[in-house]
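Cont'd.
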Amino acid sequence: MFGYVGKCLKVNLSTGKIQMYNTPEELCDEYLGGRGFGVAIIADRITREYDSPEMPLIFAAGPLVATSAPTSGRMSVISRSPLTGTTFDCSVGGRFGTELKKAGFDLVEITGISEKWVLLNINNHHAFIEEAPALVGKNTSDVGAEIGKEGSYATIGLAGEKQVRFASIVFDGHYLAGRGGLGAVMGAKRLKAISVKGNGNISVADPEGLTSAREEIMRLLRASPAVFGEFGLSEFGTAALVDLIHARRMEPTENFRNTFFSHASRYSGYAMKTCYKTKRTGCAGCPILCKKIGTHGEIIPEFETVSHFGALNGCSDLSSIVEANKICNEYGLDTISAASSIACFSEIEGKTISPGAMISLLIDIARREKGIGKSLADGSLRYATAMGHPELSMSVKGLELPAYDPRGAYGMALAYATSNRGGCHLRAYPISHEILRKPVATNRFSFEGKARIIKIAEDLNAVVDSLTACKFVFFAASLEEYAKAITAVTGKNFDVQSLLKIGERIWNLERRLNELNGFDISDDDLPERFFKEEGTSSANIRIPPIERNAFLKAKNNYYHIRGYESGE
Amino acid sequence: MFGYVGKCLKVNLSTGKIQMYNTPEELCDEYLGGRGFGVAIIADRITREYDSPEMPLIFAAGPLVATSAPTSGRMSVISRSPLTGTTFDCSVGGRFGTELKKAGFDLVEITGISEKWVLLNINNHHAFIEEAPALVGKNTSDVGAEIGKEGSYATIGLAGEKQVRFASIVFDGHYLAGRGGLGAVMGAKRLKAISVKGNGNISVADPEGLTSAREEIMRLLRASPAVFGEFGLSEFGTAALVDLIHARRMEPTENFRNTFFSHASRYSGYAMKTCYKTKRTGCAGCPILCKKIGTHGEIIPEFETVSHFGALNGCSDLSSIVEANKICNEYGLDTISAASSIACFSEIEGKTISPGAMISLLIDIARREKGIGKSLADGSLRYATAMGHPELSMSVKGLELPAYDPRGAYGMALAYATSNRGGCHLRAYPISHEILRKPVATNRFSFEGKARIIKIAEDLNAVVDSLTACKFVFFAASLEEYAKAITAVTGKNFDVQSLLKIGERIWNLERRLNELNGFDISDDDLPERFFKEEGTSSANIRIPPIERNAFLKAKNNYYHIRGYESGE
């Protein structure tokens, strides 16, 4: 039984030196855990290249992990992205965070570059480095078969070994630190995998307070149509979004040339549930269980994945899309960047791509092989720039955009631009307001009030990623309940305002770190297409281009609210 | 300027020793060249394993090569098949045979196993072995880019390196020693590639006689609807057959469960010509130019390939089929065995396979990776046997059947069974009689007269493969004209009967060699399905199962004509 503050593990792969120290209490107070820990620790080395020995790769759990707080089975991975060059964190599910906390550690900070490929083994207060020649060249399920028998593990596949710039890290078979290429950072360090096993328990300051917070959250969750409703996340997973986005004519189609794909119903949540007779699975300690597995063990893809291997590439064949997702899981590859890079290639080459050719090219990318596979392994922006068409990379700060066309949700447009890790839907997720109407509905075709919504949501999500909790709970519960939970765990007083203050601190630090790497407000922008070309309209819904001036005004307003100099 | 009889090159990769000797005149008289040479030379070592150092791999040109005889740009590759265990020869086009002859060599016999991966370099009377570390792991187009700048080359891709049992050898980018896994023999020897360059010219005994034979053949070719007609080979390539076979309800569909695929028109010769705006290309010295290339350099697949990646796997997406063909060319893989192994897997697993999953599995096979890719890399018969269902491997002697359902052509049924290299359409090609009505039409649903037709066609094709000429010419010309050509080249008297005698000698030797490896008449059989299940019938055409007794009677008749003991 340990308190909620554990130890930090520091591993230098160049020297083989392993150190442990108590997690500083100020770090907990100022940065909570998870993403907050990561950005605080990386700060003094952020200008190093992603593949330099000094660059840290950090795996950090939050204070709620391994407690009875709902959706507390998550953690964060943090480093500098090989794709965007920004500071980068990914929130990951599975069991890794829980095992890490139970082993006595809040975080693992890895620096250095090993001479040979190694496995880091963490077991109840102990850690050691082993050479792992037998794991090299293996894809993620084969690594899992070797080291995943107990506890939890994180591994890269071949894409990470080859430093594909959007290689992911795969946890426990199908939880991914998906975006931004943190798998390539792991690959650059010649760290093939980490296994972790812990048997300890976490004592909390006020168990009754935690139980009461937990019950409040559970009650809200159970009452939420978005989560447990007939068409909700628990029933269909994130693919529940396919129909919602389709109906609103905002599904990125053929590299964002259109916003409507007539075959989308073939890969809707309902279609996949019917075809694969899915069952639920999910992270340690989660009541929602949003992940879906088919009767023959097929891993059912997420919304972003079906939409981008589907509409974005003009592919209507569900089973080929499921195959593409499997390949990304096996090789360790971000599905969004992979599918987007292929769609960008198709537009530049003036080709339509067949399901077969899509899979073939995807494998070339994952292996960083052949001319075109090699170029696309650097991401769509580097590829499109080399081809003389940077404007056809549908990315922000080099991170490929997910499956919400910004012409159909102006809050999302602003959030893509201001996101400090590039074109990401999860920094603010205004879709919640604009499409799901949570907590209140807003007009999706207007920038009115969006700057403030985005600012607050960005801070909120920085808190969520540091606690470390799941964003899906916030369709139902709010920071109010989580403030009670964290207060009960730590015995220190947190409220919504103090938590948002921490979120803002994390956000501003991330922004400052990006500035140190040369980013400025000119990088807070969207691809030209969205300001010039219409989306696909229907009788009821017109999808015009976004007015550039309205966008710039909203962005300046956002800077003003943030207290940044605007300068535009 | 050399005579038509050149030298033999003997290379031992274990010792690095290279020898040359004059091609014995008796060998020429008794076995002509090409396939005949190969089977004569391999005879004393045929019981060795394919990967033993003693097993020869032979590349042999025929006496017409590099002369002005039409379609004389071919050659043969001979060894023992890793897939079937039989003696095995492949007839190949391109420029390799021509360059070899012009370099002064009739054949190259390679034995031994190199310690490191090597390239064999043949240049005008000289040959040397070079280490080739930079070529290892490369696929065939990348090897071509390195060594294919002048002359000709033969190489294996990754599939050959990994000894996939149906790995092919790729010549000059897209001419294949496709079937039977001779690429794996090359891989077992660690011979990555051969490059050959020759500048000599071949003197012929009677140039005027050769010109006259050539003109006769050309006149017949030009008059042939099958070759130069509106729907012929020159216009559409072998894919011209798609519509013919489709209309007759004899296209193997879903692992031969059905014989009609409603989407076949999507990959007909006409469809591919329209989609890819193809142009003609072909072997050195060929007037037909049956190969087709798309405007963006796409290699257009052959009939067997489109039909098997199409109907046999239930795939109607042309562009995925073209992709599958490209992968087979790149990795060096027999398209017929690859597509059939995947179809066999689908039936055993009770799955329908998507285009994407088909491509993904194909790449796993080519790389001999992951559980299922590894099993299928041993061919459908070993896989199906391991799964307890040998009857679902649609093969004869372990060689997967091509794209003519034997229930729709009984001559083909008999020819599949008696073929001494396993389930092959090219040993006798009775399709010529049964479908193309050349030289005369026969009833495709009867065994009447087929035993004799097959016997003669087998002998004839042994001659054609030894000359070395192209089987397509024989839709128009006959052995009569070729007897004149070979007489003119050699100055020795050949006529149809003496040539057929040589063909029979080659055939009987091959059969004897198979007997030495344990084959007997029980191996001259077809998968049970063809005797038990109906094909797909239409209003006009019924495709019943073949009557086993009629088949056995025809087979005994064949043995009788051949002068073999029947014993059934």
